[in-house]
Amino acid sequence: MWSFFSRDPSKDFPFDVGEPIPGLEDKSVWSLHKAKKKGSGEEVSVFVFDVKNGSETQLDVAKAAVKRLKTLRHPSILTYLDSLESEKVLYMATEYVEPLETHLTQLSKEGHQRELYLAWGIFQITRALSFLNNDGNLRHNNVCMSSVFVNSAGEWKLGGLEYVAGASEGTGLPIKILPVLEKYDAPEKCDSSKQRFVTKCSTDMWGLGCLIWEAFNGPLPQQAQLKDLGNIPKQLSTVYCELVGANPSSRPNPADIITRCRKLGGYFKNDLVDTLLFLEEIQIKDKGEKNRFFSAITPQLDNFPENVCRHKILPQLITAFEYGDAGSVVLMPMFKLGRLLDEPDYQKKVVPCVVKLFTSTDRATRIRLLQQLEHFIGHLQAATVNDQIFPQVAHGFMDTNPTIREQTVKSVIHLAPKLNYNNLNVEVLRHFARLQSKDDQGGIRTNTTVCLGKIAQHLHPQIRQKVLISAFIRAMRDPFPPARSAGVLALAATQQYFLLSEVAVRILPALCQLTVDPEKSVRDNVFRTIKGFLGKLEKVSEDPSLRESMEADVHTATPSLSNAAATWAGWAVTAVTSKFYRSQSDTVKSITPVASKTLSKPGSLEQPSSSSISTTTSSVTSMTSLEQEESKGAESVSDYDETWDTENWGEMDTPASPPSTASEPKSLLPGTKEKKGTDGWDMEEWGSLEEDLAAESGQGEGWGTTDFVPVEDTAGTKSVNTYNWGDGTKEESANRTQSWEDTEWEPLEETGGASSRLEEARKKREERKLQRQKELEARRATRLTGGPMKLGTKKI
What we know:
Belongs to the protein kinase superfamily. The chain is α+β, with helices and mostly antiparallel strands.
């Protein structure tokens, strides 16, 4: 029983007191210690007063400080957590802080960042004094550098409440126990004739002047030094002189100081103070104000102190996203500040927000997420990417908005290293096969080819061998010139994955057909690529032992960086991996549907539809920039260059006039007619270069982007192993059907060179062309009389 009463009560204190923090040795009755909360390990600070070695007066002052801190709650006043009094010691636990003097010595001595930060700190102390003097009707009586502390978020907190007294308790000033604090006493303390002019805030305003002097010039040696402004900025000098004036009644009220200095040109009017005040009041701001704020904050963050960004601004941004209507505009500053976090904090604070964002149906949010993917993909676990993020991203492949589809294709570059076998080798390639052949946007078809070349190293070797050649040859037959260039460059950039037999039998014949391409830039790339492939074949012909090293990467999951066979195509590697084609949808933030209109000319005339005008830009403009880009690529033999956003395949940022009928044939292959729409994608004969592309006739006159509906995945979709990506054999189209799923995707081999067989095949093609033309004429006539054909209706 007696052991119970003799038990040390300090053991019940819920904090483990650690090592002391220097800075308060002779300036306070307290000593400051680091501490951790028992159980959670949360860092706090504990002010310790040694009862045994302290005087009775000092103990009374310390108890008064605890009592005051318990009852005062303000964002700029030290946050009280707990306290404990025993016969030996008095503990007072607060949020984790350090003395202001210690903190300022760690800041850079000069620079814009320090200036902004000091303005924010002085503003906070002025605000705290306004609360005490005006709202609490109290006087602090001890304002100086030793009574101000800084927390982990860089916020200045007013402490040192040992001498707080009510404003109605007389004009006399308390006697400071510690002699070192007497230099901060106002001059009226020793001049009884001036005490009748003392106001409720005059004493604290003198102390605020002392604090301002010390913030810019260091610790105050003696009171006479206050006459020398030193490093105090000109903006603040007028207010400072009023604060340290000899007449107490002339010193301004802290509320008036805030009002004056917050005006345009005032000391408290800067980006950091504006930003932090807005975040404190964000709950009462309307959506328009929030959008403007978050759009403007990103470039300003570089001028803010790191601890303020990490512990003050970033938590506010996350809170604004989770519990407010900040929307997608908060993403850019949030991801930029997320880099300051260590990995455990990032996983805890940012990753849950990212996963939640990917479930959003808001298109603006999805686009911003996909654009910022590279900034946070490295922090995401593979399981999170495959189970929670990729299923949401995959919806973008079938979105009706071209911008969403294009950004989704580009995002695969960053997702590919973390995707599992099924998601990458089956799901992604299934969507790529459809986009490359059926998407009405030439830029998206081009970027699909570019992306496939960039992710080739991550594909399974068997899938890679089966898919790449067919996919790139298909791109080489695209009517859009940059798409053909992308196919050629992709073949050269991924040449280490092809067997030499495939080079001779499939790749070179397909490349030779483009040596007469109407676009010179395409022809230049083709000739360069052909020379490279022929060089490989010649080397192996001279020395067959090189064949093994040439094909070393064909069946390996991770390509060899030292493969000498890849060096000749360095120009193509740079071209295909450094730049995406920037389509029209990449330069606009929202797609405005094109108004429907009826063409006055008959459908049989080769008049481009409004769909093609709205979704395809001038090939002349595209190829001018493409030639410039390729001339640069020819000089470069560097490795993968990931700065593909700075330059692009065929710059489309400049406005281009809609292509006229006279310029359209320049974009088509020899022997083909003008493409007039998107109706006949499923009837396209990719097996022959001589097929009539008029099958894509003018349905969709006046289509807007909102008229497209997602292509639904039907049951029983085949594995990508069974897809035939269209290798260009002349008999491939013989058994072509209308259905995407029923199409045989395995490449068909040539059956010899007998002239009779070739003649028979040619006649069959001619018959099919005539039959198809008759069907299309009938459909045009029906459409002209019956109105525009709707998606989903049964085709003739």
